[in-house]
Amino acid sequence: MSLFPILTASFLFLFSLTPPSTTASTSNDSPTAYTLLQSYNFPVGILPKGVLSYDLDKSTGRFHAYFDKSCTFSLQGSYQLDYKSTISGVISENKITRLTGVKVRVLFLWLNIVEVIRNGDELEFSVGITSANFGIEEFYESPQCGCGFDCNGLRLESESLGRNSFVSSV
């Protein structure tokens, strides 16, 4: 007995479980995760290069973005970022909430970035009790896993994070 009919039936069953409002970047007619970010008024640089796929429930804004592995890199100053292989949250115009899978190292502590809000030409990154604002121009390019904007000893001009420190949001 051939396994082909069983595999085909299994695939069709799994495919039928996918909600119709979900978009995945693996299909040819879907935008990339970076283009999708722009449609919600965010710059591409809040995601590092290397997103393999994503899913989005358009009715709720709930999303997942997938990398092949965790992604860590340093930026100018003392900022080190860590993206897990899967990040998730809820996206709407100018706002990402309930974000999971992204951490920033501040001094000796790793803090989860839980929210990103665009306010005009600034992005506010919140870790709950503290937040930091950065100019939107600092996120026009996506950093690379492992090296950020300083890959092969060539620092990209757009990399200027670190001029603003985390400040209390209270």
TrEMBL record:
Pfam families xrefs: DUF538
Superkingdom assignment: Eukaryota
Protein name: Uncharacterized protein
UniProt keywords, alphabetically: Signal
Keyword match Signal: yes
Signal sequence, renumbered to the chain: 1-24
